[in-house]
Amino acid sequence: MTTTTETRLRANKPRSLHARWRALRLFAAATLIGVALAGCTGEQFQKGYILPPGALEQIPIGASQDQVLIVMGTPSTVATLDGEVFYYISQRSERMVAFMNQKVVDQRVIAIYFDKDRRVRRLANYGLQDGKIFDFISRTTPTSGQEMSYLAPLFKLLSFN
After folding, report:
1. Would the pLDDT of 63 be above 80?
2. For residues 88 and 34, is the Cβ–Cβ distance under 8 A?
3. Residues 94 and 102: beta-carbon distance below 8 Å
4. CA 14 to each of CA 1, 4, 7, 9, 95: distance values in angstroms, whole numbers, following the listed order
């Protein structure tokens, strides 16, 4: 009876070893496929200014230009139209798979307008919404001047005023 038990143990050992190697190969293949797929997952890219959390709340209307520089840092660009304007420009893009082109997800231009005394007059947070510049704070889109269609001069001629 002992010979039968020994024979069974010897017969089961190669099967057990073969099963272990098979499981190890299966695990290695699954790990390799997982690593390969993880390399293809999406990426996010941040370009330009990164807005610190809560930074805009620290800049009240009437704050000095120095306070803005302390809280926000150096602007991306500065304009001097009527007064001075600091622009902080950023863009966030992503790609779903590592080898595909990037797609712009969000664009922001934070504009801080100053009066002649170098105090904050207005804050604006412009973004990309349906391809148009949009102010997220006041929910308005700035325009330059009054746009008239080609029919407007004709209606002016026909009016009796």
Report:
1. yes
2. no
3. yes
4. 21, 16, 12, 9, 49
Distance in angstroms (rounded) separating the CA atoms of residues 122 and 142: 13
For 35, the token pair is 């690593």
pLDDT digits (tens, 9 = 90+) for 82-101: 678 898 888 888 887 767 78
Backbone region of residue 76 per phi and psi (left: phi > 0; alpha: psi in -120 to 50; beta: other values) = alpha
Determine how β-strand 120-129 pairs with β-strand 132-135.
Answer: antiparallel
Phi, psi values for residue 64, rounded to 5°: -80, 160
Helix (H, G, I), strand (E, B) or coil at 22: helix
| Residue in this structure with the two tokens 């001069």, named with its chain if needed | 153
Amino acid at 61: I
Distance separating alpha carbons of residues 4 and 95, to the nearest angstrom: 64
DSSP character at residue 52: P
Tally of CA atoms within 13 A in the half-sphere of 136 that contains its CB? 12
Rounded Cα–Cα distance for residues 81 and 22 (Å): 73
Please state the pTM of the whole predicted model: 0.56
Residue 114: other Cβ atoms inside 10 A = 21
> For the chain, how far is it from start to end, CA to CA, in angstroms?
122
What is the C-alpha separation between 4 and 87, in angstroms, rounded?
Answer: 87
At 119 the pLDDT is: 93
